[in-house]
Every structure is written in C-alpha cells, then in structure tokens.
Amino acid sequence: MRVRIQSSTIKGRLTPPSSKSMMQRALAAAMLANGNSVIHNPCKCEDADAATDIIQRMGSVVTKKENSVEITSKVSEAPKSIHVGESGLSLRMFSPIVALKPEEMEITGTGSILKRPVQNIIEGLENLGIECENPGKGFLPIRIKGGYKSNFAKIDGSLGSQFLTGLLMALPLRKEDTTLKVKDLKSIPYINMTLDLIKHFGIEIEHENYENFQIKGNQIYQPTEYTIEADWSSAAPLLVAGALKGIVTLEHMNPDSYQADKAILDALQKCGASITWEGNNLTVEKKALNAFDFDATHSPDLFPPLVALACYCAGESRIKGVHRLEHKECNRGIVLKKEFAKLGVRIRIEDDEMIIPGGSVQGGLAKSNNDHRIAMALAVTALASPSPIEIGQHECVAKSYPEFFTDLRKIGGGVAQFYFDSQFV
C-alpha cells in the first residue's frame, strides 16, 4: 500500500495518542509491583502491544478496559523466551529486567529489530555478572541466564538511554546495592522520565550529574495508579503541520513534561512559528518561517519532523546529532537524505550535522523504509508541496500512531490511499 497526499490547509483540534515510551515503562513497573496496578489513558500501538505481551509472558494478568489497563502482578517462573516485536525500547529495557530471573531465557524479535546491534546490551549485562549467549552474532536472539553478581559496572551511554532505563528499573530489586558509572549519556530527558515514573511506584535512585548512579537494593515497587501523558513524539509532526499550512490545536498536552521531544517547541520558536498555550491546550499557527539551528542529540526522534519543517524555512537549517540516527528502524540519516532527494531536497550531512536547504520541495514518490517517523514526516512535507507526494510503506505508522493518517485528514490533510504499485521504488 501507499498513500497520496496533496497540498492542504490545516485547521482543527486533536488529542495525540498517549506516550508509548511512558506506557512501556509503566507496564514494566506494574509487572515489578506485586499486586494490582492501573494504567489510565493507555497507549494503543504495536510497541505497547509488545511490552504487554512480555509482562504477560512473565506472569502478569492484563485486563484491558475502555480507557485503562489493570495489571495484576504475581511471582512466577520465567518463560523460556520473550518476544519484543519491533520495539527497541522493549528490547533494551526488558533485557535487564528479565535478567533478575535465574532461569535461562531467550530474547528475540521481528522485522527491523533483527537488524539492530545488541552488543552494548550483552556487554552491559555481562559487566554485572549475567551470563549471555548470542547465536545472532551481534544481533538477536540473545540467551541470558540471570542473577546479578557484580555490584559495580561501567555503562556506555553514547548509544542512548534505554538500556540504562532497564537497569535503573531492575537493580533496586537486588538484595545488594549497585553503583553504575555512566559515560557520555544521551537522551537524558528519558532518564528523567524513568526516574520520575519509578518514584511514583515507590523506588528512589540517587545520581551525580547522570554519571554516577547509586542504587540501593531491597526496594519494593508499590502497586499504584498511573496516567499516561499525550505523546510529544507523535505530536511533533502535527505541530509542524500547523506551522507549515495553517493552525492546529493539540489538547491534553503537558507543558511540564519530561518527554525529550517536547523540545520540538524550541525549534518551532526558533524558526518563527506562533506558539500559544491555554491550559493544557497547545496551538501552533503558520507564520513566515526562517532557517534554524537545533541540537537533537538528546531528542533524535525529532529529526524527521524537523527535516519536514526545514524544507519550508528560508535559508539552510542545521540539525546536530546525526550519529544518533544509525540504529533506529533504519539508518535514519541516510534514509532521510535519500528519500527527500526524491522530492527535490538536497540534504547534506557534514560530520554530526544535517543541513537542509529550504524552498526546494517539488513533490514526487518516496517511501518510509518501514520507519514510522519518516512516514509521518513525508506526509507533513506533502501538505505544503506544490505537487502531491506519494509515500510507500506508510502503514508502518502503526508502530506508534495507528490513527495518524485518519487524524491528519480530520484537520484538513488531503489524504487518499490506493494499492501498492510493484513499480514503486
């Protein structure tokens, strides 16, 4: 399948889906708490489904209601395997968590996750005494035999925060205290999200400048209720749509959110878009847009919508943090450069910066490369294109935002679907 989107005027109000990052963390915390926890405003997407499947395999009973999920956690034997789907967060977060169990377990997945390297996960677990086998030779599957034995480890944070999130969630349940020394940590806002969430479940962790984490053992997760915020990552392309072609209001947004992709507001402000808050409702309106410089090192998922924004800014925009894009659903930096070239946009990559010229979109054919964020960015780009843009493999948005194209149509986006053409490249 592919989707065709033409120039449109955007006007309307939406509530973005709930945060899949918070949802997966909340599911893990609820699993670790003996008793009944309730998650309100749950995220409904493939990554959340993957995390739900994992906690069910680990013994939790999950009851889905209209706008909540109840998790009844109980002590049980570990399964022989868990399946992370295509979720990078579930892979990196649950690996340290399931390693609390002494039984041998295999971790596997499907699709794009099978192309993501796992060596940093293996090294991190082995540093803490976990036995690992890797028949995938640097890729999934991993076989682990749990039971943490070391009280100290050095962790490489340069590839992101997700593995550290898993350690921070798992290690408080050890009998012993643990010290983690973390080097070059990226995506720090997501660690703040993790620390805030587990505090809600009764867990306290101290750190010094995100470099030394002191984790006391013998802590207990308390069953509780937790409400998932609207997702800033999913909101970002909608906000860019408003900045490019009209006005959009997103409801139930948290202006004080720990989510890293709230930084989209900084970029919109820099380029000249109008931003207005009214309570928890956020409105972005089109104004004259100028080129901007932005550091996305700690929010790499913003690269695709920022590229769409930069395409219509006067001058050359620069986005820093390209090294964070290599191990996403695809090599996102290379794919953005390749697919936007098909639309007339000649992106350059110089060292760690992506440089996007404004004013050169022509329309044409492009594909997502099964990357949900690139599919959404191409769709937003089409809203202001002089000629329609057709996007192949657009259905991958189900990974994080299944209703994206429906919602885009609700606010005026000219969206039409038709069957996949075998000649489409």
TrEMBL record:
Family: Belongs to the EPSP synthase family.
InterPro entries: Enolpyruvate_Tfrase_dom, Enolpyruvate_Tfrase_sf, EPSP_synthase, RNA3'P_cycl/enolpyr_Trfase_a/b
Protein encoded by which gene: aroA
Entry-linked CDD domains: EPSP_synthase (cd01556)
Region (Disordered), start-end ranges: 1-20
Molecular functions per Gene Ontology: 3-phosphoshikimate 1-carboxyvinyltransferase activity
Binding site for phosphoenolpyruvate: 20, 88, 116, 162, 332, 373, 399
Pathway participation: Metabolic intermediate biosynthesis; chorismate biosynthesis; chorismate from D-erythrose 4-phosphate and phosphoenolpyruvate: step 6/7
Name of the featured protein: 3-phosphoshikimate 1-carboxyvinyltransferase
Assembly description: Monomer.
GO CC field: cytoplasm
Primary location: cytoplasm
Lineage, uppermost ranks: Bacteria, Pseudomonadati, Bacteroidota, Bacteroidia, Marinilabiliales
Transmembrane segments: none
NCBIfam families associated with the record: aroA
A Pfam family of this chain: EPSP_synthase
Active site (UniProt): 301
Protein's job: Catalyzes the transfer of the enolpyruvyl moiety of phosphoenolpyruvate (PEP) to the 5-hydroxyl of shikimate-3-phosphate (S3P) to produce enolpyruvyl shikimate-3-phosphate and inorganic phosphate.
